[in-house]
């Protein structure tokens, strides 16, 4: 079989090309890269799903996280060398797992004070961090309902500004009383007052809706 030898003027090296074979087109290169990426994703899918399932304890959520990580790898880094895909994929996966865990923690804090919960003083029963960590079941059926979150957003928007600020910092951001006071530029006592009033108002309004 004949070969043609060419000399690169820049590098001074020889490269042999089969005389009966045309160089690969850009489309061929893209197709080969796509096939390689598909094979890589297929090879890590099961292990990634197991990792996400253990971390999240929810198979449906784990599946969503894995699929999102695979999609992000393909979109953002599919053109990278295949040797880089493994660390990039698992970095994306871990970021998605942490994002999911944060969202779940926020949902638990939000609904820890839901009207079905017990009303109490300003510190203990109304504290979302304490309630979320006490091990009692969360109202998952309510959390899963998009209408509940819409109702909450609407009710929070109607609160006085300082009550809304205290509620969002304590419940959504998960700040403690001291950190909330620093963020709001007020005393810890004021934070407790604003937060307590916000919680009682929201419980009353949302209790009527649910």
**Radius of gyration, in angstroms, nearest whole number:** 27 Å
Report the biggest beta sheet as strand number plus sense, adding barrel if it closes: 2 strands, antiparallel
The level of helicity is 55-70%
Distance separating the two termini = 81 Å
Q: Element order, helices and strands? A: EEHHHHHHHHH
> What is the overall silhouette?
elongated
- The number of E-state strands comes to 2
Task: Give the assembly state of these chains.
Answer: single chain
Number of helices: 9
What share of the residues does DSSP label as strand, in percent? under 5%
Q: Number of domains in the coordinates? A: 2
Strands side by side in the biggest sheet: 1-2
Which residues form runs of ≥5 with pLDDT under 50?
Answer: 1-21, 117-144
Please, what is the average pLDDT? 74
Summing up helix and strand content along with how strands pair, one would put the structural category as mainly alpha
Structural features, described:
The chain is mainly α. The chain has 2 domains: 26-118, no CATH class; 145-210, Arc Repressor Mutant, subunit A, CATH 1.10.10.10. Helices cover 67% and strands 5% of the residues. The protein has 9 helices and 2 strands, in the order ββααααααααα. The protein has a two-stranded antiparallel ribbon with strand order 1-2. The longest helix has 31 residues, at 26-56. It starts with a strand and ends with a helix.
